[in-house]
């Protein structure tokens, strides 16, 4: 028992810093002085001192006493004893919960507990002061409100979460998945860890019996959910549910065997999680009976929303819609039943494709309105992979290097990997994307395999992460089958640019010099360019403020005229925008006051460029639609402008930003304000 107690006494980062302040002081120091140094409340320091004293006690060192009107002072002998522990590495790992971790802890602990939770319990779980917890509770209430839930407080009893049971469990699962590493580290003291780990062992037996594989971390989340099943007052309703069909599944038989004490409806609910949380390779049959038309219309609307936000047109839209339809057909059931699937690739997607992820998140606001629930970042990442995989890459020359891709992380990840390899190796030919189990006699169809898992095959194979990292790209480009072709490809590209300036008799000599220079020179190692944002394009030439009243046609020409003068666009680009607005109406308005004027790259774009005009008098379009700010975006392709769009969305997502921008009287003031908004995010 003492061993368990000891494991809960540790020094987080803030406590360690406070202790260092005390150790370095040669005189008394008050709690107020420490609070000022640490930039936290005096109450927080009080709680930290309690934890420091617990830690000292665990090593047999007397508590640090606070002397009235003086503060705390550590004598020389005590300092030496503490330093021996710290320098000897005996002190435990530093950890302080982040604000978002505290939000998750409050939500999970309040839902997990069968009894109301007191504020003092929450301060203990989060290791912060009461004031900090009260501030966190405001954020908790907003998150619960998104799910239609309420945080209720009863005097002398504590806090509970009230609302629909399915939604309550959904938000619990979502937050637990984010906290799972803290749970595994033993830092979440409110859980019955032994019970949850026992549940996990049973679920892993079920996984083995089903000969299947669940998404990473999902079984642990279900294990933590099981104590909630069958609780008094936990009435659940499963919409569009067929009991007779679920009882025919293998999952039902295993749930009956291991969790037979649950009520029938709870066993069905658990089965739905086991059916819906498998590794996403294709939707499971049980989730395919939703009326196809409603899912199809939702899919089409979501693609249209992304196209509008990202200023792109998918050439292979039907293929994208089919892939999204398959994904959404099962995802919509998961939303309804509160099944939360984590995404082990989330951090990689955000890191490698931040612009696509942010734009997908904006498009998902439409989906949230349709389903009546927030769409988690895990789901956004899955959808972002679908959208990103179907963004068109300019066609380049091909060579005879045949490449087979093997991916076990689902359709969307496989397609995204294919697109990345096509962009990285434009001279290669992707002969297919398949699962490892299907990779038999691959030497007959390819010269090289790029795989997300280790495989045995005759042809060379490169193992990479499902979401390509910079090291993966370097590994690919340095492979012996590729490095030579890469050098030739780069050399030919440069030679085609310069050959018009040299004599024909010098062609071979110049080509040889270029190849020598490019030997080992891989400037495109990352396979991705850090595309420039909005501030790289806006300056005193591309921003203007218009004081007079103008027609909407004049407004478009005034907003984009500077880009015509600079040669970034042809005059016809602006005329094509005007023609589209005549025909379709002011569909390019992205808020009540802001328009993003754009059209296809082939309709007059020479270079990627952006301009902005602020109109002091409202610009009136058909249907009495008015705008005060017009951005003109000239995109060369379907990806280079995404960071620009991300910055524009940062501006318009807060209405006060638009209001303040409209008030600026000079170009310099407008640019300064834009820098303040974008650079501080």
UniProtKB/TrEMBL annotation:
GO terms for biological process, alphabetical: phosphoenolpyruvate-dependent sugar phosphotransferase system; regulation of DNA-templated transcription
SUPFAM superfamilies registered for this protein in UniProt: Phoshotransferase/anion transport protein, PTS-regulatory domain, PRD, Winged helix' DNA-binding domain
One Pfam assignment: HTH_11
Gene Ontology molecular function, alphabetical: protein-N(PI)-phosphohistidine-sugar phosphotransferase activity
InterPro entries for the chain: BglG_antiterminators (IPR050661), HTH_11 (IPR013196), Mga_HTH (IPR007737), PRD (IPR011608), PRD_sf (IPR036634), PTrfase/Anion_transptr (IPR016152), PTS_EIIA_type-2_dom (IPR002178), PTS_EIIB_2 (IPR013011)
Domain PTS EIIB type-2: 401-488
Protein name as catalogued: BglG family transcription antiterminator
Species of provenance: Clostridium porci
Lineage: Bacteria, Bacillati, Bacillota, Clostridia, Eubacteriales
